[in-house]
Amino acid sequence: MSRLSRTACAAVGAAALVTVAAAGTALAAPGGRHALDGSVPSWAAPRNKVGAAAPSQQVTFRVYLSYRGGDAAAAYARAVSTPGNADFGHFLTPAQFRARFAPATSDVAAVSSWLKGQGLTLGTTPANRKYVEATGTLAEAAAAFGTSFAEYRTEGRQVRSNTTPLQVPDSLSAVEGVVGLDESQTLVRADKAAPAPGLFRNAQPCSAYWGQKTVQNTPTPDGTPLPASPSAYAPCGYSGAQLQGLYGMSGAIASGNDGRGVTVGIIDAFASNTIEKDANTYFARHGLPTFTPGQFSQVVAPGTYNQPGNRKQDPAGWAGEETLDVEAVHTMAPGAHITYIGSPNNGRDMDAIMNRVVDEHLADIVSNSYGYGGEALPAGTIKPSLDTQVQAAAEGISLFYSSGDNADETDAVAGATPTPDWPASSPYVTAVGGTSAGVSQSDGRVFELGWETRRSSLDKTTTTWKPSTWLYGSGGGTSRLFAQPSYQTGVVPGSISQTYGGAAMRAVPDVSALGDPNTGMLVGETQSAPDGSQVYDEYRIGGTSLASPLYAGMFALAEQKAGHEYGLANPVLYGTRAASIDITKDDRAAYPGDVRSDYVNGVDASNGYSYTARYFDADEQLTIHVRPGYDDVTGVGVPNGQSWLDAVAAQ
């Protein structure tokens, strides 16, 4: 990677935002007010309208303010994260960041006074003065912002939005967006291909390692004959030394390069009340050290654990997400401290939780296993989150986001609009894509391919596989919002960065790790059995929700070895890409896929078995493809053991 001067960094960053930069743009509005451009979600269209929202409904929202100095904070974040820049590694403390870039106290006071004058009740304003929180009825909010509210149907849910752009007084020029008046953030989803929160068990046959059990050497439990190809039964789920061996980290971990001294944060919604017990049970079963006293901490708000009956969210499902993330990070960085930070909902508080983590510097590295299906959120939601990511980089915090589990978001349907997911598409985070992998009996890599899956079910009459259909896969593609960041210049081919024509744009993902649920990780979790009892059990899982914490754990090893933080990791990861393993299609002919045996009821054989073939690297109908060099399924590749650790740590 070429070494950039501070001036060059700033020049690239000035073009880093396309539509998002207009979040606070003033549009003509009567009465000394201006409209916030992009404050109406794209899904809030007349065709989706269900009816008016109840005016008496209580709503809590946040008015976000811009940093002082325009692009100065973003330019500094890029400079301190870029090797060769004079400011590289000169990270700020939260207090120093506030002093240089936080919104002015006078702007906070002006917004607070206006909200209070509208009859709204003021809530929290964080130490970095990034937002002012307020609560009131929808009727009060409608009067304050010069709009009305309605209910809309989108993505199978009924959600609320303002019907017209939000308006604020011209004097409040620092306002860049409002989060919480519309319910866009309830559309966030965990990026994992997971079973339901009820009890789920792997069915036999499944393999302890790649190729242990095949159609040829192991009959089905009910005597159903299977086609000869694919021949390998799916692994039961990799764990412990298998995952460390897959990425060549076993020797480093054994020698003490295990992440000690580094704190990895995990941000999800809600929280599991059995996580530490479950994790320690899992670690003990799979040859990993259990948590030492104080090595794991969970930061949650009161009432976060149990919120049943929520029509728009899934507390129990998010507990499984936390379990996966915690066990994956500890597997790859068994010496690191893990801090789990749970939002009390998967709506408006997700952005506030991230702001807290960054402004209190609660972690050195953060893994985030959630995202939105595309980049269609309002600019007033995207820009505040982007600012938080900038502060993280300026303070030395590295943010990793899963790239999503729905490939290019077209569902392989011709004519659909391809898009990467947000926040993975942000130029200030590291987007982690997924792979399919085989691990040998001796814990080595057999193969690794891009994770894009087609599935065939068994025709039991003819004992042949039915025609396959696309199922799921690693998220990726070319952003429609963000210009190409400097670290991708000369690395991402124009066929990807300029796929829409015009200027080069940000491409996703940046890197990758194991994500395919059919070659995934074994996790252990307390689940609800059919009789209502709570039981600990283990099952195979995947998704880029697995890839992100695995990669974050490995990055903790590199950070420990280097003895310092990195901020935005991408300049270093692209600059050391020669130490990563490039994922190509070379192994596809020899390893076309595997066979899954599943219990029909997900628990036991009482209702029989189902059999499916899962085909690897099946990206033919997508707009994203694995190819030599950078690609929009696996980025620059996966870590290559000690050589990767050495290269990253040398920066």
Quick recap:
This protein is of the alpha+beta class. The chain has 15 helices and 31 strands.
Describe this structure in words.
This protein folds into two domains: 183 residues, no CATH class; 402 residues, Peptidase S8/S53 domain (Rossmann fold, 3-Layer(aba) Sandwich). 57% of the residues are buried. It is globular. The N terminus is likely disordered. The protein has 651 residues and is an alpha+beta fold. It contains 15 helices and 31 strands.
Q: What features would you highlight for this structure?
A:
5-stranded antiparallel sheet, 8-stranded mixed sheet, 2 domains, 24% helix, 651 residues, 25% strand, Rossmann fold, globular, alpha+beta, 31 strands
- The end-to-end span amounts to 12 Å
Instruction: Assign an overall shape.
Output: globular
CATH homologous superfamily title of the largest domain: Peptidase S8/S53 domain
**Helical content band:** 10-25%
CATH class of the largest domain, named Alpha Beta
Report the sheet with the most strands, covering strand number, pairing sense and barrel closure: 8 strands, mixed
Question: Rg to the nearest angstrom?
Answer: 24 Å
**CATH topology label of the largest domain:** Rossmann fold
Annotated CATH architecture of the largest domain: 3-Layer(aba) Sandwich
Alpha-beta classification? alpha+beta
Number of strands: 31
Residue windows where pLDDT falls under 50 for at least 5 positions:
1-28, 306-313
Domain module tally: 2
Provide the residue-averaged pLDDT: 90
Number of helices: 15
Strand content: 15-25%
